[in-house]
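Revision sheet: structure tokens.
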Amino acid sequence: MKLARETDSPPLRDEGEVVSGLKSEVGLTTEEAQLYLDLLKNGSAPVSQKRGGMKKLQGFGMVILSGDGTEFIPVHPRLAVANSYRTWRESMVREINERRMRVDRLILELIPLYEAVTEKRAKRRGEGLH
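Predicted:
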């Protein structure tokens, strides 16, 4: 299935490597990576041409909707990949912060147990000295 207006775009040195990089570093599927490359090669795709993965590319900030709402337009690769990285990083930071809160709650739950046992041990030592 061809996208809108096919252009003479320069060939990639290794399209497979680029697709692999978009998968491993950006988190796209093969289909989504190929869709982004197709959009870059063709400049746009009509909204009427439903293709899986477009929503994810939009969510990653790699594709935008044209002002008149008729086409999907690829975002410049510098911004697109940076946007996807920022989205991933924010997700990781959120996950790290949530885990830190869970760890802190666990610590607060365990401290009284430790302190009670430590206090009992100290009392036993104190009783043994008298």
